[in-house]
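Handoff note, outgoing to incoming analyst
You'll be picking up this chain. Sequence as last confirmed:
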Amino acid sequence: MSKRAVIRIQLDLSAKQALDELCRKRGMTQIAVLSRLVTWFSRQDEVIQASVLQGLSDRSIAVLARRLLEQMARKKGD
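Most recent structure output, in case you need it:
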């Protein structure tokens, strides 16, 4: 038996059109794209999640910016 769940989402017309275009460009189904996005999103730390959901205070945005800059600096040094 498969360990999967099926959910429904609601999109406005412009988001649906953008999703359709993305799927066409990538040669992927909507289910594949959205499954990967949800999996990626759920694995992010709470600062990234809040940023994506537009729920950050100015202080949290500063923390996020600092983390991203530090991460970029480490990658450049490798």
